[in-house]
Amino acid sequence: MRATRGVPLDGVGIQSHSNYEMPNEFTRDKQRNWIAFCEEVVGMGLEIYITEFDVNDTRLNSDMANRDQLIASYTHGTIST
């Protein structure tokens, strides 16, 4: 893909600081919006690079496995490694 001025563009880097809510408050509508954004970027022939993915876990219990499960469900179907 070429940007407006002819500069090659291969991907989009994302630093995610947008999750002010808890992972279990990530509603279906919010998930659909995130998926639509990702699909639009990929539809332009670009790769997505997530370089930072902040998650608000301040009110979760201290069980790391539980926290990790909630985070995984937040991204399920939209992020692969």
Describe this structure in words.
The structure is a single chain. By secondary structure, this protein is an alpha+beta fold. Helix content is about 35%, strand content about 15%. It has two helices and two strands; from the N terminus they run βαβα. A two-stranded parallel ribbon has the order 1-2. The longest helix is centred in the middle third of the chain and has 16 residues. It is elongated, with a radius of gyration of 15 Å. The protein starts with 10 loop residues before the first strand and ends in a 6-residue tail after the last helix. The mean pLDDT is about 80.
Keywords:
alpha+beta, 81 residues, 35% helix, two-stranded parallel sheet
Low-confidence runs? none
Number of DSSP strands?
2
Run of helices and strands: EHEH
Range of strand content: 15-25%
Distance between the termini: 23 Å
Sheet with the most strands: spatial strand order = 1-2
In one word, what is the shape? elongated
Mean pLDDT: 78
Q: Short description, anyone?
A:
With 81 residues, the protein is α+β, with helices and mostly antiparallel strands. It has helices at residues 28-43, 64-75; strands at residues 11-16, 47-53.
